[in-house]
Design a protein that fits this description.
single chain, alpha+beta, OB fold (Dihydrolipoamide Acetyltransferase, E2P), 3 domains, 7-stranded mixed beta sheet, 6-stranded mixed beta sheet
């Protein structure tokens, strides 16, 4: 059993799904951020429990062939990008393996398509920051397994317009004593910011609506409504979802967790009608605004939870569901199975809940296609698109 401040040495043999290398000391795994399979390292134990320990990387005795010089000077102190020290092709290989392992655990033997990729740096259009105690760098991100905030002056995965506005919005947040900041940007370089103070009061920059055009559809969103943070790949994601569903001119569909209408608005141009289901009032307002702005009158947005819609028994030909990281859950999976809808596309940002949900849905649907998207390079996250046929 390792003790606090022990110095341990060994070889990293695998990565955890949180992106940390695993060093085995006896029967106890020691999780060390910033390491790669094949690294021989020394680390200091900074946290212990009965079943595992946390180590802080001290030296790399012998580097892994999967390692690269990190493009971020704050790595591995900053906990924002757990894989940025790894070769991008190895990152993708690892994410597909994690997905395959999760599906195997649920007894799902499915073929996984090649990962759809884009730029691995300068792609992120939204970034969340927290207040530091640093005098000249007032905002940053949490260190891994620590409450300490790593002071940052920029982020290599953020789009250039966010980095260009970093100092301006940091000063803005500091002048209002904000404890958190969210900086957002669109594809043309416009930025907006919102944040909270320590009492939970919300502040924004006033001009908080951002707009981008994807696949001929003009989308607007705010800091209170979700929009994909990797906008270039989001355009490809939308086209992929539509191609898998192939909505017909006489067909009707449902877009569950529709947000500001990312999928539903595009598919409404191809079919008879689509109903969007969304419980966030701010997102509902923006989805309706976007439908009006694009002259799309066959996309009806309802502000409600998903379960009442399915209980209403409205017949539909197809559906897309894009839930939060918590996934669908047993009740909603059961209602989808009982819905009679012939084909679905499930868009997931969490392979763990995806695999559990697919096991439930597989009682009534066959899995036709699984396509992973590298929406979040250098992090442990990925987006997965799954088509289901009744």
């Amino acid at each position: 059993m390792s003790r606090l401040s022990d110095i341990v040495t060994g070889t990293i043999h695998e990565l955890s799904r949180k992106g940390t290398g695993i060093l085995h000391i006896g029967k106890i795994p020691v999780y060390v951020a910033g390491t790669a399979p094949g690294d021989t390292i020394t680390a200091m134990v900074i946290k212990t429990s009965k079943h595992f320990a946390i180590g802080k990387l001290l030296t790399i005795v012998s580097p892994s062939p999967f390692r690269r010089p990190s493009p971020c000077p704050a790595s591995p102190r900053c906990g924002g990008c757990g894989l940025i020290h790894l070769d991008p092709s190895y990152q993708r290989q690892q994410k597909i393996q994690w997905l395959r392992d999760l599906l195997d655990t649920q007894g799902l033997t499915c073929e996984i398509s090649d990962m759809v990729i884009g730029h691995e740096l300068g792609y992120r259009h939204r970034i969340n920051l927290s207040k530091t105690t640093h005098t000249s760098l007032p905002y940053g991100m949490n260190r891994w397994h620590s409450q300490y905030i790593e002071p940052l002056s920029h982020c290599p995965i953020a789009v250039p317009s966010i980095n260009d506005a970093w100092d301006q919005w940091s000063e803005w947040g500091e002048s209002r004593h904000l404890s958190t900041l969210t900086i957002s940007a669109n594809g043309s370089g416009q930025t907006a910011v919102a944040g909270n103070d320590s009492d939970g009061r919300r502040y924004d920059s006033g001009d908080t609506i951002l707009t981008d055009t994807l696949n001929g559809i003009r989308y607007s969103w705010t800091s209170d409504s979700f929009f994909q943070s990797n906008i270039p790949l989001a355009a490809q994601l939308v086209k992929t979802v539509a191609s898998l569903l192939s909505p017909g001119r006489l067909e009707t569909g449902v877009d569950v967790f529709c947000g500001v209408g990312l999928f539903g608005l595009y598919m409404a141009t191809m079919c008879h009608a689509i109903v969007g289901i969304e419980s966030n009032p701010a997102a509902v307002d923006m989805a309706r605004f976007n439908a009006d702005a694009n002259g799309i009158d066959n996309f009806e947005v309802r502000c409600q939870e998903a379960e009442p819609f399915f209980k209403s028994g409205v017949p539909m030909d197809f559906g897309v569901v894009d839930p939060p990281r918590t996934g669908l859950g047993p009740a909603l999976c059961d209602q989808i199975c009982q819905s009679g809808i012939g084909r679905w596309v499930y868009v997931s940002c969490n392979p763990i809940t995806l695999a559990t949900d697919l096991a439930r849905l597989s009682s009534h649907y066959s899995i036709s296609t699984i396509i992973p998207f590298e929406m979040f390079p250098n992090t442990v996250h990925s987006e997965v698109v799954v088509s289901l046929t009744r």
